[in-house]
Amino acid sequence: MPGAMILGMTSPKLAIQTEHGRMYSRKVGAEATVPSITTIIGMDHTDLTGWAGYMAAKALSEDSRLPQSLEQGSMMRSLVRQAASAAADYRDAAAARGDRVHFYAENYALAQLGQTHVLDEAKHALESHGELGYAQHFESWWRDYRVEPIQAEVTVWNQSVGYAGTIDLLAKIGGRTCIIDYKTKTADREGIVKRPDDKVIMQLAAACKAEEQVVDAESGDWKPWTYGNDVMLLAVALGSTGSRTFMAPPAAMPDYWSKFYALRRSWESTRSIAQARSTLAEITPPPQA
Which residues are in the PD-(D/E)XK endonuclease-like domain (predicted)? Predict the structure, then answer.
């Protein structure tokens, strides 16, 4: 089934979900030893309590059973419980949609490269969810920017700092080598695709600072990463109504890299504390003289 295929394909072969977030191994079946770029960036928490509260209130106000539940306490409690999960449901649906769009984009690039692909299955998955607009605008973006793909889904590694990640697309645009990250976004009230979060600059900076890229995930064969200099770092916002392309400003890269490095140290400390189960130790009063 296309859905099952997508679930397997959107998770990089060397990525493993652990209690400390997504981590990477050097070859298939080996122990995961470094965190993913997105796991590290996730240490920079964003307060979403206001948004979650709004989503819960919105879900409750739009529920057609609300008038009837005003006279039935048990039904009202049931509606409140369902509304409380509205933010998580929205997040999970957005993540699944992002997986489908990324899978389509990956296979479109593979087809352009003349490599093995399952583009028809990827397109069918989007169509079955009413999401063909994402595919159409992605293809328009590809044509408009005259993308010349080099490699899709490139897993990279930095041993010095200790992290790994997977780049959506490595390509040439306008004669420049580009590291490209796709972000699926909704549209505003005017139908304009929303901007990606600026945290993507950190993600692109970390990808640029890689030291190796995988050659064969099964055997654990790697080679030096040669795309760390003179590259454009692009974030492409893909929506059902259009697309927008943003470039990470070169002048901002040192600061974003410094923040990423600090978050990597924070991740390590957090994991060490969790593993040591370090907690407050209760003590008793000193003995009487």
Answer: 73-210
